[in-house]
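lol forgot to send this yesterday, sorry. C-alpha cells for the thing we talked abt
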C-alpha cells in the first residue's frame, strides 16, 4: 500500500480503500461464477466439484464430500517465463 500511496500521492487510507475495492470486485465476480483475467499475470475462475465418497484418513470411515465450488488460478505465459528465468 505504501508504494501505491507514494507513487500517486495518496494517503495510506485512500490506497488501502482502492486495493480493497479491487479485491471486493474480484471476489464478487468469482462468487457470481465469473472469470478474471489479468494480462501477463494469469486468470482466476471457479471450478465446480461434484459430490463424491471420500475416506476420513484418521479413522478410515467413509464420508460423503458435498459438492463445492473453489477458486482456481492459472498462471499467465509472461509471468511463468519471468519466474522461470
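and heres what i got for the seq, position by position
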Amino acid at each position: 500500500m505504501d508504494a501505491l500511496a507514494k507513487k500517486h500521492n495518496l494517503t495510506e487510507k485512500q490506497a488501502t480503500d482502492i486495493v480493497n475495492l479491487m479485491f471486493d470486485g474480484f471476489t464478487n465476480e468469482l462468487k457470481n461464477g465469473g472469470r478474471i483475467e489479468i494480462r501477463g499475470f494469469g486468470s482466476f475462475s471457479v471450478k465446480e466439484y461434484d459430490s463424491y465418497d471420500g475416506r476420513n484418513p484418521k479413522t478410515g470411515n467413509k464420508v460423503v464430500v458435498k459438492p463445492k465450488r473453489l477458486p482456481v488460478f492459472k498462471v499467465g505465459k509472461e509471468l511463468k517465463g519471468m519466474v522461470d528465468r
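The first strand starts at residue 36 and ends at 38. anyway ping me if u want another try
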